[in-house]
Design brief:
5 strands; CT398-like coiled coil hairpin domain-containing protein; 246 residues; single chain; coiled coil; CT398_CC_hairpin; Helix Hairpins; alpha+beta
């Protein structure tokens, strides 16, 4: 049978009040609106990131395609310029000159086709870069909003953390000197019952659980010796008998 000084048992009520306050603060900290806002923005950023990666990849592909198209045009221009220079030099025979003229005509047609391809790629790249710019801007806005939400979250959490530290210090003071076995039992029962380890008995009413005890259980509790640690049958909560102080 567990025993502990009646005064130590009564002090558990103060400890319980502080523990409930710590639970409330922890819940409040975990439920900050800014936390949900950060998570929401993270999800939006993740969704946008898929489109952003795809758009950046497409833009990169189009730039490579444009570089190739420009290279193809430049290659034809270079060859045409070389042929034209030979033709203008007057140092080629009539047959070669005719061949050069034919090649220059073919190169001109080829250059026209390649320039059309180059223009098409340029237009597609320009349009895509506009769309990419919009995605980049939207992403920057989301990142900025997230940073604001994180600052808000951290500021609110810091206030709560300071209060948690204060209440924790008060708890350390409150538990000082309490019977070690009683305190260990309280912590065990509290862990098993969602944070409540002790209830105060006033008459037939168990404060904390907000129930009236049956006459049989009430007799067993009130008849116990003052230093006996009595507990409720259903969940094992420690019962502090306040009427015994009267």
């Amino acid at each position: 049978m567990t025993t502990a000084p009646p005064e130590d048992q009564r002090r558990l009520l103060e400890v319980q009040a502080l523990d409930i306050r710590l639970q409330q603060l922890a819940h409040r900290r975990a439920s900050l609106p800014a936390i949900a806002r950060v998570a929401e923005l993270d999800a939006q950023i993740a969704d946008l990131n898929t489109s952003l990666v795809q758009s950046r990849t497409s833009a990169s592909d189009l730039r490579r395609e444009l570089t190739k198209a420009e290279g193809d045009v430049e290659q034809v221009r270079t060859r045409a310029a070389r042929d034209q220079a030979r033709l203008d030099s007057g140092q080629v025979g009539a047959k070669d000159a005719q061949a050069l003229v034919s090649e220059l005509e073919a190169l001109g047609r080829r250059q026209g086709v390649l320039e059309e391809v180059e223009l098409d790629v340029m237009e597609r790249l320009e349009a895509h870069e506009v769309a990419l710019g919009q995605l980049e801007s939207a992403n920057a806005d989301l990142e900025s909003a997230k940073a604001d939400a994180e600052r808000e979250r951290d500021a609110e959490a810091a206030v709560i953390d300071a209060e948690i530290a204060q209440v924790t210090a008060e708890r350390e003071t409150s538990v000082a000197g309490i019977d070690a076995g009683l305190l260990a039992l309280y912590d065990k029962v509290r862990a098993q019952n969602g944070g409540r380890g002790v209830v105060a008995l006033k008459g037939t009413f168990a404060e904390g659980l907000n129930v009236n005890l049956s006459p049989v259980e009430l007799r067993e509790i009130t008849s116990a010796a003052p230093d006996q640690v009595v507990r409720l049958e259903d969940y094992g909560h420690i019962v502090v008998r306040l009427d015994a102080d009267a």
